[in-house]
Amino acid sequence: MSRKESGGRAMPREVVLSKALSHLLRHSAEKEHLKISKEGYVNVADLLETRKVKSLKATLPEILEAVSSSNKQRFSLLYVSPENMEQGTEGSQQQQDVATSTAASEEKQKSATTHALSVNDKDASHFLIRATQGHSIKSVDTTLFLERLSLSDSKEESPATKLPDTVVHGTYHGAWPLILASGGLQAMSRIQVHFAIGPTVDEVFPNGRDAAPAKLEDKSNQIVISGMRSDAEILIFINLRKALEAGCPFYRSENGVILSEGIATGGDSPDTKKMVPLDFFDLVVERKVGLGVLWENGNVVQELPSHLAEKKNPKQVRGGGRGRGRGRGRGGRGQP
């Protein structure tokens, strides 16, 4: 089974496997008849038997390597020892109880993954795996394994628990007019909109706000940013405190991604969609061609030129070949 990158080169096997795992755990587990818990965990033995993974002839060591080598820490792993398991229904319940307990604590999640990767056990059925974020499967309750951010989070607390100073959403030229027209960021097919905690405004404007922003680097030099594609052309900076004060929920995933399903902005109608509205946008910056600030404090500073606004967004090629114009593409309008 071979896949190709946009440049026509064959993707390395480990990349193909990682993409397949991400797609299954985030989007298609139920379609593949893969049992997934409300915490997002599936049994690795069952995972290896799915059509998508089985076609790759993947092994348990390769799954473990995919977890440990993911540059964005896309996966969490849980080991349930034979001593803590029983056969049949009771064994399944034991796994469920362990998964529920672990998912409730970010610290437990990280230590559980570290422990699972250190275990010398060749039985795949003793391992559970889930995606750390990015789900569209409605039966998965992401609030069970995401840390909800609060205004009470103190600056004196550890960096891992305090409110992030920067919350930014990366998107593309073609998505920006749609975001403006819709009134904000919508999760679309995902459960939540994704945000990163960098780059900061100072990093985007290294020579000051009166100068042009730093342009995107060549793809080969781009750094990995959890929560945003590194080639994002437009950066939307969020006023997190204002959003939290207004009751808009924000969460932090195990791998540091900030997420929000937004709030209902159209009254009590059952058809009202949730979004992170424009009211919470502090600053919007175009950095691909160096236009700079497009939006600031509730006002349009400059329009995006039509030849950019009308561009189709890059397509994201996911495990099953699904792709669509997006901003970050996943989910269409503004989804990173």
From TrEMBL:
Superkingdom of this protein's organism: Eukaryota
Keyword vocabulary terms for this entry: NAD, Transferase
Catalytic EC class: transferase
Catalytic activity: 2'-phospho-[ligated tRNA] + NAD(+) = mature tRNA + ADP-alpha-D-ribose 1'',2''-cyclic phosphate + nicotinamide
Gene Ontology MF terms: tRNA 2'-phosphotransferase activity
InterPro entries according to UniProt: Ptrans_KptA/Tpt1, RNA_2'-PTrans_C, RNA_2'-PTrans_N
UniProt-listed Pfam families: PTS_2-RNA
Compositional bias (Polar residues): 84-104
Basic residues: compositionally biased ranges: 321-336
GO BP annotation list: tRNA splicing, via endonucleolytic cleavage and ligation
Keyword Nucleotidyltransferase on entry: no
EC number: 2.7.1.160
Annotated region (Disordered), positions in chain: 84-117, 305-336
Function as written in the Swiss-Prot or TrEMBL entry: Catalyzes the last step of tRNA splicing, the transfer of the splice junction 2'-phosphate from ligated tRNA to NAD to produce ADP-ribose 1''-2'' cyclic phosphate.
Family in the record: Belongs to the KptA/TPT1 family.
PANTHER family: PUTATIVE PHOSPHOTRANSFERASE, TRNA 2'-PHOSPHOTRANSFERASE 1
Protein name listed in UniProt: 2'-phosphotransferase
Annotated source species: Talaromyces atroroseus
